[in-house]
Design a protein that fits this description.
The chain has 430 residues and is an alpha/beta fold. 41% of the residues lie in helices and 14% in strands. Helix 9 crosses helix 11 and helix 11 (263-276) runs antiparallel to helix 12 (282-292). Bound molecules: nicotinamide-adenine-dinucleotide.
Length: 430
Amino acid sequence: MKICIIGSGYVGLVSGTCFSELGNKVICVDNNKQKIENLKKGVIPIFEPGLEELIIRNVKQKRLNFSTDVNNSIRNSDIIFICVGTPTNKNSNKANLKYVYKVVSDIKKNLNKYKIIVTKSTVPVTTGDQIEKILESKNKIKFDVVSNPEFLREGEAIRDFMYPDRVVIGTDSKKANNILKNLYLPLIKKTNRYFHTTRRAAELIKYASNAFLATKISFINEIANLCENTNIDVKEISAGIGLDNRIGDRFLRAGPGYGGSCFPKDTSALVTTSKQFKTNLSIVKSVINSNKSRYKILLNKINKIMKNKLKSKNITFLGVTFKPGTDDMREAASLKLIPYLINKGSNVSYYEPTGIKSNFNNNKVKYINNIKDACKKADLIIIHTEWNEFKQLNLKKISNKKNYKIYDLRNLYSPEKMKKNKVSYFSIGR
Ligand SMILES: NC(=O)c1ccc[n+]([C@@H]2O[C@H](COP(=O)([O-])OP(=O)(O)OC[C@H]3O[C@@H](n4cnc5c(N)ncnc54)[C@H](O)[C@@H]3O)[C@@H](O)[C@H]2O)c1
């Protein structure tokens, strides 16, 4: 089977590379020329552990190729995975499907034989129906449109792809289902977690999964607020409720709120879809509001820690990405916190393992390329992202300032130990 991946970002590049690792011939396409030129030279555009080695190996084996030629790549392939972005349309809160429909129009022009068109991009329920209509209108050549939502997590993407909790395939076509089941066979042989359903159900499964996980995060964050006012450690609550198998212990870590490229946009698109189909997802709406206001709670706490004296204070962020293991800055809490602190006259600097970020668009925000120098003059250190290298710091001596403080948004340290060591340490939910 010849596979064409359109959109070589976090999802497309990982999926294409892993499919080639399984022995398939894959062409990864992108309309970003620079990205493709770099990939051809072995320069990987994203930070994703393990990806570079896999790409190099499969390019060498001539199973993996890169191209900007979308027309020929489609014509020469049997299965086309649409992996372009579906960001939020800021005016309507809908998923913006213009990138998806551009690819669909390219496919329409190049439908020269039976093909399976797969949406791996997260698309609202009934998008597959629309795609089918567009492709049907002129062309008599047979095709199937299938939904195969992707569940990989940045930072763990290779493992998630190779050892999936489940592979969801939404189609009524037996032929397409058989071909895709065969494609995924090496991954589902052991676990048999292949879930075949209708196309609409597959589309909704993705949104419902993300909305549910976002709900868990917001839930524990609100419980953390209660813990802070009742002198309880939220970690005790997470552990205590997580032992209940019906609840499970994952996604119960209180922190700065969910961010990234998926949860914020997918919860918002789901609410818009629900309105379109005349239902009210009031729980998801509350989750969105709760998460949106989360940063205000953090800022209040920062003000409290600093006794409302932020002007001219040196504040250092350890990590700025929305989570560890990725260079992705989309919807990171730092994007809200840092501009506020700059506005208040603080001197903000940051150390980030994946390097300097252009997102702050402000020359007052300083990048420092090692932890020691980043922290040595800090009045306040904010542990923003739980990178492993922040887990064993000597917080007792990290700054030269006399009364420096630490605000740990990831609860990486024991408050008791910090107290013993006379470190002025603040965490979430306690
Ligand atoms: N990032 C994740 O962790 C993740 C996980 C699961 C699902 N998803 C979903 O997968 C989709 C892709 O997400 P992503 O994070 O990989 O996005 P991304 O922005 O990293 O990558 C999208 C790529 O598509 C390219 N592109 C856009 N239009 C194109 C066109 N017409 N032809 C060729 N290339 C084109 C862009 O240049 C970009 O490289 C989204 O719908 C997202 O919701 C993402």
